[in-house]
Amino acid sequence: MAVRSKISRRELTPAERSHLWALHCEGYTPTQIFRKTKVPRTTVTSLIKRQSLSNNNSFESRPRSGPKKKLSPRAKRRLVRTTVAQPRMPLKALAIPSKSGKRLNHHTVAIILKSFGKAKRRPRKKPFLTDEYRLRRRIYCRAERDMERDNRKVCWSDEVTFEVGEDLRTFYITRAPGREDEYATKNLRPTFKSGRKSVGVWSCFCGDEMGPLYMLPEGETMTAKRYKYVLQRLFIPFYERMRAKHGEEVVMQEDNASWHRAGIVERYLTNKRVKRMKWPA
Description:
Largest sheet: 4 strands, mixed
Shape: elongated
Strand order of the largest sheet: 7-6-3-8
CATH topology of the largest domain: Nucleotidyltransferase, domain 5
Radius of gyration: 36 Å
Strand content: 15-25%
């Protein structure tokens, strides 16, 4: 009977190995086992020899070593250090020999980085802050934490702009999960206000109560005079209503934009006895 080619053969299951071994224990020779089971004689002989030398009765396949690793542990750490120093570098650039010592496929790079808890992710968009502003904000947050202010008694106000002409190109960075790595300076995508058209909107709220909404004329920006008008017509009535509801502890929050610090605005809010919350900007 013709023997099947090696290409068409498959690995024996544990049950098949157990059956072949049982036939051997019953006194069957490898040739007789071959005629009975159609398993090649060389396979039967190899199984009998291997099982005879084994100290256990298990017929399960042992774990294979697998293909040879592309990189040594040291080379992998070198690759990870490169991604930490340059998170914007694409996977194909990380695959060249200068980064790990060997040329790799970019899929292999992704697998190695994943084993270290890193992957390509979109960077978070945050306004650009200098070191001085970051320090001031940190000091402010600590002071607010120690003060234990009731934020439900703060009239939060701000302007928002809908941008036209914003850079919407997508790129990815390599980082680990978690907020610490997510908001690290080198992993952010700074946003700037130049080269864009905008439509502005002002509004405020206090606790769970929404305040009035004001939309700036299209193509125009907020100025000190316009901001004073918004305060007179919209904010002050809302602020007085919140003080009547929550008491004298109600304060106003602003982000210190240039029109917030203008003289006519400062004098108006002082005359109205509006309590203002300190804000780092």
